[in-house]
Amino acid sequence: MSGLRPIRKILVANRGEIAVRVMRTCREMGIATVAVYSDADAAALHVRLADEAVHIGAAPSAESYLVADRILEAALTMGADAVHPGYGFLSENHRFARACAEKGIVFIGPTPEAIEAMGDKTAARALMEAAGVPMAPGTIDAISDPLEAEHTAADIGFPVLIKAAAGGGGKGMRIVRRAEDFAAALTTASSEATSAFGDGRVFIEKYIEEPRHIEFQILADTHGHVVHLFERECSIQRRHQKVVEEAPSSVLTPALRDAMGEAAIRAARSCGYVGVGTVEFLLDKDMQFYFMEMNTRLQVEHPVTEEITGLDLVREQIRVAEGRALGFTQEDCTIHGHAIECRIYAEDPMSGFLPGPGMLLAHDPPSGPGVRVDSGVEEGSEIPIYYDPMVSKLTTWGADREQAMDRMIRALDEYDVAGVPTTIGFCRFVMTHEAFRTGRFSTHFVDQHFSPEVLGALSDTLREDFTMAAALYMDGYHHARPETPSAAPVEGFSPWRTRRLRNG
After folding, report:
1. 297 given a catalytic annotation
2. Are residues 475 and 436 in the same domain?
3. Apex CA 242: angle with CA 83 and CA 203, to 5°?
4. Distance between CA atoms of 344 and 37, rounded to whole angstroms?
5. 319 and 414 in one domain?
6. Which is the catalytic residue, given 174, 212, 297, 372?
7. What is the spatial distance between Cα 214 and Cα 246, in angstroms, rounded to a whole number?
8. What predicted TM-score, i.e. pTM, was given to this entire model?
9. 407 and 436 share a domain?
């Protein structure tokens, strides 16, 4: 891989905002792009932005975006030099990465061997132990014997965490606080892991109370150079999924940052890593950190790292895939200011963050100093039921954390969405909460501080107003002709106001 191989055309094996994000960098680099799309995405923004597009199947991802053979066939047919997998779907599928290599197509990501090693949590733990990366007390290998597992849990000491060996995202994971609950939790976790990943193996580790989720962005080339691009704080989560991220963390000292960064680099070197990746740690209340997992892809929250470093991580991915050496060293990397990202999902915080797919009757994102919006949808777009219900990623940058938070509040207040429920109100709640403002929070923030009541239930009147606003909009309210009676303004009614209230 040491030879230089310029890339002229990239098939983006993804959809939504990450496909749009990759295509924009490709356009700047003079690289042609190929989009792939399902039935549900025929009119999607990423399809229109690409130079060429290929239909790959029905709406369900199992019949389109996850069909590796179909995507590889599209790359070959369209003459693509490389495939960029984005995140999710096939991005951490070592078989797909290997199939690309066998067909002479560059997979813009790590080697299949690195993906496989880090995708298996027990294999990853063994590598981390050999590399001297701190880990929470627990088993290195998966445990299949229930009696042995119970004895191991007792030796570690409750509470313990049962985790799936082959996956993540909270699936196949159970916190067990009492010995008498362990057997049932083990069975449930293993069953869930089998259903989600086709692999029921689990391992056990000490459960860290009040942890913070701190991850380090790493970047490695094919010439032996590895750097870290500092940390991201990802502790604001619901259902073990991140909602708010920031860089840098408000609690890391320079010494702790250096120690964690060096551990992240050792983790990357342990598997011969190439490209961008993320080493995730848990940080306990005593400021001790422990390896959690490594994500062998570009992360959803990469914009906050880009904002504080001035780097384009997609550009760096492509350069590394071409065989180029990094153009900087660790000493060249510095933190500039502070950045915060809020994930704007079509979810209803009032109903346990349940997805709320539908048509975007309005989508008017904020702008102005220090505001960035990454989105794959527009006004009139559909948020399909088949995929992650993300509307956009809203990122703000400030000279310091306080300015970044205040800018985020302003941006959230300016953000106008109608047609679907969103997490905008929840994100504003986070930005104004004392625990977040002071940096004293953990991954339990939602459980400890949030309830639907804090956002306030919409009154029956306001719900009726929203229904009327949606009807007027669909009937041509914004572009009404004089002869259209149904578009006449309603006295005392503001569609702008009802949209704002709906966002909350």
Report:
1. yes
2. no
3. 85
4. 23
5. yes
6. 297
7. 10
8. 0.87
9. yes
